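Thread title: Can someone regenerate the structure for this chain?

I was given the following input by a collaborator and told the matching structure tokens would be attached. They weren't. Posting the sequence so someone can regenerate them.
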Amino acid sequence: MGTSKRPLGPIFLVVGALLLGACTTTRAIDRNPEGVLYPIFDGTGPGTIVYVHGYMASVASSSSVLEHLKQFGPRVYAFELPGHGQAPGVQYDIHEFSDYGRALASGLGDIQDLSSGPLYLVAHSLGAVAVLGALSQGVGADGILLVAPLFQIRNAGLTTLGVNILAPFTGILPGGTPVSWFRAYQRWRRQGLPISDRLPRTIIVASENDTVVSNRTMRNAAATFGQIEYREIPNLGHWEIDSYDSTSPLWHEIDRAIQELMTQGRKTE
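Best answer:
Regenerated them for you:
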């Protein structure tokens, strides 16, 4: 998620929004949205790293993490989710959450010589939805790093209550999240996380004080699937990845995780 907006805030400021009495808006949502894949770094070593940003972020707002990924050696790409940045689609909206995975799978298909070395997928927040969706469509990866992945929104019951109260009055929630995006999220969650035993080694790095996504759901996924490892960083929130800090324990853990995945990937070549 980007730094300029904070979607899905506490109870969505329900009372204030009701007093404003905003009018409901209807927007046509692209049923086949496309993302945009950007080459970031040519690479000096084998393999490819693809970074997928979070909700309300973009390739431009992810410059810190993209610059940092160059140090690992492989070529680096960044994928811009539909409805974000310069990618087509209704801003911050989606018809179905599965469209994120379909768009990413399509974008990865445009990378030449993708099979010439290991593929590592790195994603933040909503980007994890795209990664899981792409894998379920047959994309192969050698290692995955998910930072604060959106497996489930934190305090989902309270959030749903807030959305249900506001939906008759407005199509856009405080913070800029479309109601239709949240409904698509709900449909996706009811289907269960698209995780299978064929998932490659996956490391989840979570922030202890995350107020956006549910760490418990991440822990449960790691307990269910042996190839998922869960690591939690104390005293950090959801958005620290938006700006690089060499002293941050989050970035130390990201570095360690990528190095581990790359070492394993080289062994399996």
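DSSP finds eight helices and seven strands in the chain.
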